[in-house]
Specification:
29% helix, binds threonylcarbamoyladenylate, binds magnesium ion
Length: 318
């Protein structure tokens, strides 16, 4: 069956080679990752990186995550340290992004990290994107493949809904296994979580045998962590048991109501499953043109923290 979007490509070796050519010529390609889809360009090429910002309408003060194939490639661009080596060996490839000092000789475009002294680096685990990184000679700068402030995409079709044909290629790796963005950890000082995400901060804290501070830093270390974000474009009410008039209700755990307006994140009360369904559920509700979203209380532990962080940001404008 032919896809209605002509820029969605199956991840065949032939299509990955085509993506390589587009990227080498300074173009932008949407890539699958285990967290969410990314909008990727050659991280060394300033002109290419600028295209990402203009496509997303991303505020120019918000730096991008750089995606690498392995530790060796990261070492060329960033100053590594003990905590990085411990974490990367345990959790990468996977949904964890490390903020490190940028190396003075690094070729990563200053536009990608907004001229900061630091670089956010990650090794994704999605197999097609790993293949692509291996046939490329450059790392990939890639934010989530959505318009700025909007819902993050977890399928190739979501990316097409966001950008239509303004992106040359969207590589279809199927639905993202984790479904929310990577956890961002600052390793330039005492480890600090800058963004809750696909790897629970509790798991990281236990592994490092430290208590990771949950207080917001006074200096904004991660500019992407302020203001409205992840928005379905309607009011969101947290900790609710009922929908408003013309509103949708998102439930969690075993519930007896089965109305047309009710959407369950995980009937078994599993937070990993809830995270995987999270953005897709918000997008379904948005497309059905409900007027608001009420959400059951989501336990604030494990991946529930990342879900709650996103809900709070999405509800910001109230
Ligand atoms: O899972 C993910 O991380 C996805 C996939 C595509 O890899 N990417 C993603 O990128 O979520 P984006 O641009 O939507 O979010 C990047 C976050 C922002 O909060 C940004 O401020 C922060 O990482 N960030 C990037 N570089 C940073 C740096 N040098 N220091 C502190 N925070 C940084
Ligand atoms: Mg994003």
């Amino acid at each position: 069956m032919k896809n209605i979007y002509s820029n969605i490509y199956k991840p065949t070796n032939n299509n990955l080679s085509k993506a390589k050519v587009v990227i080498e010529k300074g173009g932008v390609v949407a890539i699958p990752t285990e967290t969410v889809y990314g909008l990727a360009a050659n991280a060394y090429n300033t002109r290419a990186v600028k295209k990402i910002f203009s496509l997303k309408k991303r505020p120019s003060n918000n730096p991008l995550i750089i995606h690498f194939k392995n530790i060796k490639q990261i070492k060329k661009e960033a100053v590594i340290n003990k905590n990085f080596l411990r974490l990367v060996k345990r959790f990468s490839p996977g949904p964890l992004t490390y903020v490190l000092k940028k190396k003075s000789g690094s070729r990563i475009s200053k536009i990608a990290n907004k001229g900061l002294a630091t670089l956010a680096v990650r090794i994704p685990s999605e197999k097609n994107t790993i293949k692509l990184l291996h046939i490329l000679k450059c790392p990939l700068a890639a934010p989530s493949a959505n318009r700025s402030k909007s819902l993050s995409p977890t399928t190739a079709k979501h990316v097409a809904e966001e950008f239509g044909n303004s992106i040359r290629m969207i590589i279809d790796g199927g639905a993202c296994k984790i479904g929310i963005e990577s956890t961002v950890i600052d390793l330039t000082t005492k480890p600090k979580i800058l963004r809750e995400g696909g790897l629970s901060s509790e798991v990281i804290g236990k592994f490092l045998k430290i208590r990771l501070s949950e207080k917001q830093n006074k200096i904004i270390k991660s500019p992407g962590q302020i203001g409205l974000h992840y928005s379905p474009g309607m009011p969101i009410y947290m900790n609710r048991e009922k929908a408003t008039k013309d509103g949708a209700l998102i439930t969690f755990g075993k519930k007896n109501y089965s109305n047309q307006n009710t959407f369950n994140l995980s009937t078994g009360g599993n937070l990993k499953e809830a995270a995987k369904n999270f953005f897709n559920t918000l997008r379904i509700i948005k497309n059905k043109k409900f007027k608001s979203i009420s959400v059951n209380k989501i336990p604030n532990k494990d991946l529930g923290k990342a879900i709650n962080e996103r809900l709070r940001r999405a509800a910001y404008y109230e």
